[in-house]
Amino acid sequence: AMESDQPLGFVGLVVALLVPVAVGRPDLATEALDELAVDGLDVAAVGQSDALVGASLALLQDGQAPRAAALLGRMAGATEPEAHPSSASSLALALVATGQREGVGPLVEGTLASPRATYHDRALALLAGLLAGVAEGDWVRATELAGRVTELVAGTQDRLLQTAVAAVIEEALGPEAATGPRLPGVPVAGWRTIARQALGASPLTAS
User: If DSSP states are collapsed to H, E and C, what string results for the chain?
Assistant: First the structure.
């Protein structure tokens, strides 16, 4: 554990969570997760919701989907996607990863409709919808959403998110699926683990 003076501070700890999540390396987020004491965070406090969303994505990437879903379930805003698209899109991923697909549709549609949603929120929502479609055998819907999310992230400069999206599509639709550009040498294993939980396979262990 870190010393009580917390050299990183709260914002630093959130960054220490979000960077590993972006590259899909949840093993690099464990120290920040422990230090943040995520289960005790005040879900209503300003700034703490970012920490909770980051923590839940790190847990999802680590194969701990039920814990991630429980964490997000404590946030009242997570079920109000128009007002809170960040937590709602993460909750959609957590629900599909725990097999609770019936709640995913409204979260996905609400996030996509929200004027407050960032491209990152929209991408996560589309990935959740895509994974739910594959898990339900709706290949037409899954392929349509794969095209939409690929097009969305292609319009950004976010190479890491493009790589994560490509990896999830590959897990969901197979290696021959059309994906956008990706960064070489960035395996984004944690994003693949989210997909594999949603599709019922065993989580990847980070090598």
Answer: CCCCCCCCHHHHHHHHHHHHHHHCCHHHCHHHHHHHCHHHCCCCCCCHHHHHHHHHHHHHHCCCHHHHHHHHHCCHHHHCCCCCHHHHHHHHHHHHHCCCHHHHHHHHHHHHHCCCCCHHHHHHHHHHHHHHHHHCCCHHHHHHHHHHHHHHHHCCCCHHHHHHHHHHHHHHHCCCCCCCCCCCCCCCHHHHHHHHHHCCCCCCCCC
